[in-house]
């Protein structure tokens, strides 16, 4: 499975702080926001990842992440010149996806919870076996009227999607993480743009729904899904990460640690990545992780 991180957009809800820098490069406590969606794909075992940015900000992402080789990844980049909708990621990434299945994660979404990696790998296996054409992830919210909401049957099969319903049939908001089989590129190319001129991800999901090929996985209680698209939610996400890291002594979305755990890099390479990050607490943590694994 190939991975895509959609990290474009103007971040207008975060103005003025995003007038000079991409939203996905802003810090969420101790690391750039893009580390969080990148860590999701890495936890899923995905190593070939396309990062979609605006043309102006792409050099900054390249400076931060490079080609991914130091983490055992293969990172490539594409530019989204104007906001064209989430589903445009599959058109822009057609060459990257090829005939493979694909995981798309939004660059401002944070996922954290026990057993998440195992859940992701099981869902990916289902897509690759052909059991599911699309897998969406639902999260219980108290105000489903603000979201796209998924309705599933007793077996988890998606039966309806409601966009900001006045009387929601479910409280499961559809999050910014999507798994699809190889048909997704052709489906996205065949969409009619919305009134805003964008290719809507809901339209992609409805195609799979109509084919009876979409599943909704409930992330459930004890899990955290955070959208960092506003000033308040950005602060709340930073506080969440800070509290957990200070209390537990581990780092959320530490991409060097994930690469080491996956066996994509060895302890020496991990230690060198920590040293390169100076005397920061993050760099010291990476070095300690490497030492513990020797």
Explain briefly what this protein structure is:
The chain is an alpha/beta fold. It contains 11 helices and 13 strands.
Question: What does this entry look like structurally?
Answer:
The protein has 294 residues and is α/β, with parallel strands linked by helices. It is built from eleven helices and 13 strands. Helix 1 packs parallel to helix 9 (255-262), helix 9 runs antiparallel to helix 10 and helix 10 (267-275) runs antiparallel to helix 11. It is globular. The mean pLDDT is 95.
Strand content: 15-25%
Q: Which structural category fits the helices and strands? A: alpha/beta
- Rg result: 19 Å
Task: Give the biggest sheet.
Answer: 7 strands, mixed
State the end-to-end CA separation. Answer: 31 Å
For the structure shown, list the relevant keywords.
two-stranded antiparallel sheet; alpha/beta; 22% strand; 7-stranded mixed beta sheet; single chain; 11 helices; 294 residues; globular
């Amino acid at each position: 499975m190939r991975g895509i991180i959609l990290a474009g957009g103007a971040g207008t809800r975060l103005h003025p702080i995003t007038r000079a820098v991409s939203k996905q490069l802003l810090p969420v406590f101790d690391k750039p926001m893009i580390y969080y969606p990148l860590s999701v794909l890495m936890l899923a075992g995905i190593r070939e990842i396309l990062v979609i940015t605006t043309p102006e900000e792409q050099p900054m992402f390249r400076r931060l992440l490079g080609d991914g080789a130091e983490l055992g990844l293969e990172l490539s980049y594409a530019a989204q010149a104007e906001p064209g909708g989430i589903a445009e990621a599959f058109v822009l990434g057609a060459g990257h996806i090829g005939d493979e299945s694909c995981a798309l994660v939004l660059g401002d979404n944070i996922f954290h919870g026990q057993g998440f990696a195992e859940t992701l790998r099981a869902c990916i296996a289902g897509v690759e076996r052909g059991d599911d054409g699309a897998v969406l992830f639902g999260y219980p919210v108290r105000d489903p009227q603000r979201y796209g909401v998924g309705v599933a049957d007793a077996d988890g099969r998606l039966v309806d999607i409601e966009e900001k319903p006045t009387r929601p049939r479910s409280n499961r908001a559809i999050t910014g993480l999507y798994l699809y089989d190889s048909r997704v590129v052709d489906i996205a190319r065949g969409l009619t743009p919305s009134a805003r001129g964008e290719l809507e991800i809901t339209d992609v999901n409805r195609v799979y729904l109509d084919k009876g090929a979409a599943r909704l996985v409930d992330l459930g209680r004890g899990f955290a899904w955070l959208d960092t698209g506003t000033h308040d939610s950005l602060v709340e996400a930073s506080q969440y990460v800070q509290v957990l890291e200070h209390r537990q002594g581990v780092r959320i979305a530490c991409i060097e640690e994930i690469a080491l755990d996956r066996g994509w890099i060895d302890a020496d390479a991990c230690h060198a990545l920590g040293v390169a990050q100076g005397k920061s607490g993050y760099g010291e943590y990476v070095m300690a992780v490497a030492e513990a694994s020797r």
